[in-house]
Amino acid sequence: MGRRKPKLDTDACYQAFLRITQSLNSPLPLRQSLHLALRSAAKAIGVSGCGLVILDTTKKHLLHVSSYGLGDWYVKKGLLDVDKSIGDVLSGQPVTIIDAAIDPKVQYGDEAKRAGITSMLGMPLKSKDEVIGALRAYSHEKKKFNRAEIAFFSAVADACAVAVENTRMAERLDECRGQPMGSVVASNESQAAASELRRPAQFAHPSEEEFARLLDFYRIDWLYEPRSFPLQWEQDRVAEMFTPDFYLPDLDQYIELTTMKQSLATDKNRKVRLLRQLYPGVKVMLLNRSGFARLLAKYGIGLRGETKVVRVLISTPQIQRKVKALGRKISRDYAGKNLVLVGVLKGVIPFMSDLMRSISLPLATDFMAVSYYSEESPQVRITKDLDIDISGQDVLMVEDIVDTGLTLHYVLEHLRERKPASLRVCAMLDKRVRRLTEVDLDYVGFEIPDEFVVGYGLDYIGEYRNLPFVGVLSPKEKSDTEDETPRQDHKTKGPE
Ligand code: IMP
Ligand code: MG
After folding, report:
1. SS3 call for 121
2. pLDDT digits (tens, 9 = 90+) for 478-491
3. pTM for the structure as a whole
4. Which of 15, 200, 266, 337 to pair with 456, CA 20 to 30 A apart?
5. Is ligand 1 within 6 A of the CB of residue 119?
6. Is the peptide bond between 346 and the residue preceding it cis, with omega within 30 degrees of 0?
7. What number of CA atoms fall less than 13 Å from residue 175's CA on the CB side?
8. pLDDT at residue 361 in the model
9. Phi, psi of 224 (to 5 degrees)
């Protein structure tokens, strides 16, 4: 018979609970107040660590929010799948695990063993009747949690749940404030919005924060550094590991920003190559400094100062031939259908106007406008919706350029809700190498390389839309020596 554990000391428990509610009610950011609460809870029930996870918006994963006493490596061991990681907790019941290394309810048994974790207690985190996540206690020693400990931990979970819900509520209120009444954005879309719960206390680099803002703008769900991939082991110690900056759950895509010094980038490239070898199922994408700068440049960020068109990429005759060919193909494909061309203002105007005149079918046109990424606007919004009802119609979305694909992804979701008979996409330009989200393009004019282009509707901070060709834009300083530059006098040259 094992040594009897002393019962929980009621007075000590009360003191601990007092500290917990004081922490949760403090003006500290949620993660920090949770950390203090988890520390008090761990000490009160005599465990080495505690962690709090919440369900993500897809309800498929559990996200780490805060922890005490767990190594950074253990916290980032990988995504927690709802059905594999002590999933029973989500039915609303506490779950105890005596030996984490062998219990099938534990998703990362090997990792738990390496971290010296033996027993665990999982407690549902409930908001009213709904389970929103779990609170977990981790013990180095083999431990059978008694009724008093479980009851105490349950009270801690309730207090934490109230704190989490409070933060979410405050965020929702904040969002509503930024939106006009009667805005076309449905309220449930705010689910994927910026959330303190996912936002790390500190980003390692300002570009990461900017990137997170960009993803928030397009309502793309993201996690910051959720997983560290061990690249080399020395016995039980991780000798080398790699933690990609972002994970986009909807796309199952990791993104690593390499916006810092070139010397560091080389090592990163090596690690990414190794990661791809060791974990072939894992999708990782590198976004380097110039790629990121160009991403922001299209919103007029960073590439400030004077710019000029340095080169014609696609000449006016090339555009004309291509548009005619697209028009012929669309006319064949849509014969006998109810074709509606939908464009997003303003870049699409020249392309739409040329394309519609090369389609030899009856058709309708309509336009939408969306807000663009800037410091003031936290989320993409439809600022002008369609005038006509597209339900049952064959909608062809006409786009000037598809770059990251984030705008199109958002607009297509919006159009799909209107139940068109069919929905396809025709893009004049496709900057495929920069895609961050998968979108199917049914008709493409030209695939172009990763360069910032203007003309034929495309602008740089409102300028250059009226060029009849597509040209490459660069900061002026770099290209001052070139004097063959076509200027805004519309002198068209062939591509070089
Ligand atoms: P996406 O959401 O990244 O696919 O961006 C789509 C929008 O960004 C386009 O409709 C354009 O308004 C703008 N854009 C993307 N690349 C360029 C470019 O090279 N020049 C000008 N505008 C661009
Ligand atoms: Mg556009």
Report:
1. strand
2. 434 333 333 333 33
3. 0.70
4. 337
5. no
6. yes
7. 26
8. 97
9. -95, 125
